[in-house]
Design a protein that fits this description.
CATH class of the largest domain: Mainly Alpha
Distance between the termini: 37 Å
Radius of gyration: 27 Å
Strand order of the largest sheet: 13-14-15-16-26-21-20-19
Largest sheet: 8 strands, antiparallel
Structural class: alpha+beta
Number of domains: 3
CATH superfamily of the largest domain: Chondroitin AC/alginate lyase
Number of strands: 29
Length: 731
C-alpha cells in the first residue's frame, strides 16, 4: 500500500470509506498482511527447491512427465479419443475453434468489446498495444492497478492464458504440430517474462488461480506433443506450484471474499488435483475443496440465486465450482466426498434458477456487473452466456431443466463426452417462480416474462458487483427484451460509464431527488445499502408487493413501495409506485424510469403520459402513466443534449449503444403518498389505445382502476407506515 502522504485526496477518501466497510477482525487481518508483504519486500520471494517441492531430492523429471502423459493418478479432460468424438458431433464448433486458434498463431487477441490487438513478433505480456501502456516491471504488490497506468482488465485477460486450451484442442483435433509448438513456446516465454510475484500478471491471487486452470488443462491436451520436454514440464510445474501457494496465502477474505475467493480456491484445487506429485498436493486439495464447499453455500444462495446479484458472476462462480467437481469425478478411483457433493449441489440449484430465469427462449437479463469471465474456456465464443453454461451444468448434474434450457457448445461437449453424460429424458416448461433468498420474482404468462427485483444490493459489506436496482422491473415478450437493465458499461476504462450504469436512474425503478437508493463509495464499493421488505408475492395472481428503505437517509425520510400486478392471460401489467415522505420539509422529486431495449424506436408524437415503442415499425410496447399529483413525462436517448451518461445500453463490457429512457416526474409533498400508476402493454395490446389507470387515495388506501385485455381490473393497496423496515434492521 502506498504511503498516505503520496495519496491524492480522492484516494484518501476511498481508503477511509473502504476502512469503514471492514469489521475489526478484517482490519487486524489486513494489518498482518501488510506487515508480511513489507517483510517480503526485504527478504524477497523465496521459492522452494525441487526437493521441497516434490518431497524428495533429485526428482526424475522424465519419469514425472511420463506419469503426466499417462494420466497416472490424475483426471484427464482433453485427450485424443475425446477430441475425435467431439469433432464428429460438433463439426461447426470445431471449425470456429480452429479459426480462433489460427488467430492466436498470429498473436491476434480480442477481449471484451475492444478492437483486435496484434503483437508483431513475440508477445509482450506486460504491454497493452491498444493503449500503448507498458505495465511496470515491479513486484506485483507494488503495482497499483487503479492508478491510471492503463486498462488492467485487458492485460489481465491476456495473462490468464485462456487461449492456450484453444491451441491444445487444435493440436488434438488436427495433429498439426504448429498449434502445440506455439502453445508451449508461449508458455515458456510467459514464464520467463513473469517470474512468480512480479509484474501485473501476478497482481492478485484471483488472476493466478484462473490462469492455473487454463495452463493445466492446456498442458494435458499437449501431453504427448513432442515439444513438451521434461525441462519444459519442470518449469511449468514450478510456476504452477508457486501460483498455488499464492492462491492460498493471498486468498481474498472478509468483505473481499466474493467470486475472487472462489477463483483462488479453484486454482489451488486444480493444481493439487492435476499435479499429485507435489508434496503439498493432498493438503492443498483438502483445504481448497473444504473451503470451496463453504463458499458454494454462501455464494449460491439456497434458492439458486448468486449472492452477488449479478447473473454474469453467478455463471462464473458456478463454473469454477463445476471445474473442481468435474476434475475430482474424472480422477481414477473416484469416491465422492461430502464437500464435493456440496459443490455439485450448488451448481444444480444455480442451474435450476437460471433455467427458470431464461426459460426456453427468453433473453438473459443484464443484472448487475458482468466482466465476461470464463472459468474454463474451451469454446471460442467471445462471452460466456447462460445457455451454454446450462449445457455444462446439465452434463455434470443431469438436471432436466438445465438440459431443456441449454444450448450446447464445445465446453459442454468435452465435459459431456468425458463423463458419458446422456441427455435427460422428460419434458419441462418454464413457469413463474420466486427466489426469496436472492429476491427475484419471475412472473410468466404466455410469451411474456416479468421480473421484479426485491433482493439485496449485493454480497458482503462492499456489494462490489451490485447495482442500485431495488424494486426494478424487467419485461420481455416473444423472446425479446422490452424493458430491462442496461448492463455493466465499463470497469476501469470509462469511470463515468461505471457510475451511470450502476445508478438507480439507469434502471426501471423510482429515483427520489435523482439520487441513488444506495450510496456509492467507489467503483466497486457501496457504503450504504438499501434494504427491501417484501409484503407479498402471489405467483398465481402475478402480484408482487415490496418496499425499500434506501431514501430514509434523506433529511426528510422517503419510502418507496411498489406493487406489480401482472395477471396471467392478460397482455397488460400494472406497476403502482407509492412514494411517501415521512416528515415536513421541501417537496421531494419522484422520477420513474423505463429503459427500453436499443432495438426499439419511439413514437415521438404520442400525447403526454403515453409512450409507444416499435420494433421493425411494429408496436411492441405501450406505456401509459398517470399520477395522483401533477406529473410530466420525460424522454431521453444516449447522446442527446442533457442526457449525460444516461440513455445507453451495454451488451458487453466497454461497449454501449444508445437507447430510449422514458418515464414520468412528479413531486411528493405532504404526509400522504404520491401514487404513480404505469400500465405496460405488450403483444397485441401494444397496438391498441389504452386508457390511463384511475388513481384514488385517501392516505390509508390506494385504489387503482385499470383496463387489461381481459377487461376491467381493480388493484387495492393498503398504505401504512406501521411495520416498515428501518435502517439496519435485520430482514
Amino acid at each position: 500500500m502506498p504511503g498516505l502522504r503520496s495519496l491524492a485526496p480522492a484516494k484518501l477518501t476511498w481508503y477511509a470509506r473502504r476502512l469503514r466497510s471492514m469489521g475489526p477482525r478484517e482490519v487486524a487481518d489486513r494489518a498482518v498482511t501488510v506487515g508480511a508483504t513489507a517483510a517480503r519486500r526485504v527478504t524477497g520471494e523465496r521459492e522452494p527447491d525441487d526437493a521441497a517441492l516434490l518431497g524428495r531430492a533429485g526428482p526424475d523429471w522424465s519419469a514425472l512427465l511420463a506419469d503426466f502423459r499417462a494420466g497416472t493418478g490424475r483426471p484427464v479432460l482433453l485427450d485424443r479419443a475425446t477430441a475425435a468424438a467431439v469433432a464428429a458431433e460438433h463439426p461447426g464448433a470445431v471449425e470456429e475453434l480452429l479459426a480462433a486458434a489460427d488467430r492466436v498463431l498470429e498473436h491476434r487477441f480480442t477481449f471484451f468489446a475492444h478492437p483486435e490487438a496484434r503483437y508483431d513478433g513475440a508477445i509482450a505480456w506486460s504491454y497493452d498495444p491498444l493503449s500503448g501502456v507498458r505495465w511496470p516491471d515491479l513486484p506485483s504488490h507494488a503495482i497499483n492497478h487503479r492508478a491510471g497506468h492503463g486498462e488492467p482488465k485487458w492485460i489481465w485477460e491476456l495473462n490468464r492464458l485462456q487461449h492456450l486450451p484453444w491451441l491444445a484442442q487444435a493440436w488434438l483435433l488436427t495433429g498439426d504440430e504448429r498449434y502445440g509448438t506455439e502453445a508451449l513456446d508461449q508458455l515458456d516465454d510467459w514464464i520467463t517474462a513473469n517470474p512468480p510475484g512480479r509484474g501485473i500478471a501476478w497482481r492478485g491471487a484471483f488472476e493466478v488461480g484462473v490462469r492455473a486452470i487454463s495452463v493445466l488443462v492446456a498442458l494435458q491436451g499437449l501431453a504427448d506433443h513432442p515439444a513438451l520436454t521434461p525441462e519444459r514440464y519442470a518449469r511449468a510445474v514450478r510456476v504452477l506450484a508457486a501460483g498455488a501457494r499464492r492462491c492460498w496465502r493471498d486468498r481474498s477474505k472478509h468483505s473481499s471474499a466474493n467470486n475472487h475467493l472462489v477463483g483462488e480456491l479453484a486454482g489451488l484445487a486444480t493444481v493439487a488435483i492435476l499435479l499429485p506429485e507435489l508434496a503439498r498436493a493432498p493438503r492443498g486439495e483438502r483445504d481448497a475443496v473444504a473451503a470451496l464447499a463453504v463458499e458454494a453455500d454462501r455464494q449460491i444462495l439456497p434458492d439458486g440465486v448468486g449472492a452477488e446479484q449479478a447473473v454474469g458472476y453467478q455463471v462464473f462462480t458456478a463454473e469454477l465450482l463445476a471445474v473442481v467437481a468435474l476434475l475430482r469425478r474424472l480422477r481414477p478411483g473416484h469416491v465422492p466426498s461430502a464437500a464435493e457433493t456440496t459443490l455439485v449441489d450448488a451448481v444444480r440449484r444455480s442451474a435450476a434458477h437460471l433455467a427458470d430465469l431464461v426459460g426456453t427462449d427468453d433473453p438473459t437479463p443484464r443484472t448487475g456487473d458482468d466482466d465476461e469471465g470464463f472459468a474454463l474456456r474451451l469454446d471460442p465464443a467471445p462471452t460466456r452466456e447462460v445457455r451454454p453454461h446450462l449445457a455444462l451444468a446439465a452434463a455434470l448434474t443431469g438436471l432436466l431443466a438445465a438440459g431443456r434450457a441449454a444450448t450446447a457448445d464445445l465446453t459442454a461437449a468435452w465435459i459431456g463426452t468425458r463423463l458419458g453424460a446422456t441427455e435427460p429424458s422428460g419434458s419441462w416448461e418454464p413457469g413463474s417462480a420466486y427466489a426469496p433468498d436472492g429476491g427475484l420474482a419471475i412472473l410468466r404468462s404466455g410469451q411474456r416474462r416479468v421480473l421484479v427485483d426485491v433482493g439485496p444490493l449485493g454480497y458482503l459489506s462492499i456489494a462490489a458487483h451490485g447495482h442500485a436496482v431495488a424494486l426494478a422491473v424487467g419485461l420481455a415478450d416473444d423472446g425479446h427484451d422490452l424493458v430491462g437493465a442496461p448492463g455493466a458499461g465499463s470497469y476501469f476504462a470509462h469511470p463515468d460509464w461505471r457510475t451511470a450504469h450502476r445508478s438507480t436512474r439507469a434502471h426501471a425503478t423510482v429515483a427520489v431527488d435523482d439520487l441513488d437508493q444506495s450510496v456509492m463509495g467507489g467503483p466497486f464499493l457501496w457504503t450504504e445499502h438499501a434494504a427491501v421488505r417484501v409484503h407479498a408475492v402471489d405467483l398465481a395472481a402475478g402480484r408482487v408487493d415490496a418496499e425499500h428503505d434506501g431514501y430514509r437517509r434523506l433529511p426528510v425520510p422517503v419510502v418507496h413501495r411498489r406493487v406489480v400486478d401482472a395477471p396471467p392471460g392478460d397482455d397488460v401489467l400494472l406497476v403502482v409506485d407509492l412514494v411517501t415522505r415521512e416528515g415536513d420539509g421541501a417537496p421531494a422529486s419522484v422520477r420513474t424510469t423505463w429503459p427500453l431495449h436499443p432495438e426499439l424506436t419511439l413514437d415521438l408524437d404520442d400525447p403526454d403520459g403515453t409512450d409507444v415503442a416499435r420494433r421493425d415499425d411494429v408496436p411492441v410496447l405501450r406505456i401509459v402513466t398517470t399520477s395522483s399529483a401533477p406529473a410530466t413525462s420525460w424522454r431521453l436517448r444516449g447522446g442527446d443534449p442533457g442526457a449525460g451518461e444516461l440513455g445507453w445500453w451495454s451488451d458487453r463490457l466497454e461497449q454501449r449503444r444508445p437507447c430510449w429512457f422514458v418515464g414520468a416526474r412528479t413531486d411528493v409533498d405532504g404526509p400522504g403518498p404520491v401514487v404513480v400508476a404505469t400500465l405496460l402493454a405488450s403483444g397485441a395490446a401494444a397496438a391498441t389505445d389504452l386508457p390511463a389507470a384511475e388513481v384514488r387515495t385517501d392516505g390509508a388506501t390506494v385504489e387503482v382502476s385499470w383496463t387489461g385485455t381481459s377487461g376491467p381490473r381493480h388493484t387495492r393497496v393498503t398504505h401504512s407506515t406501521r411495520n416498515r423496515v428501518r435502517p439496519g434492521e435485520d430482514l
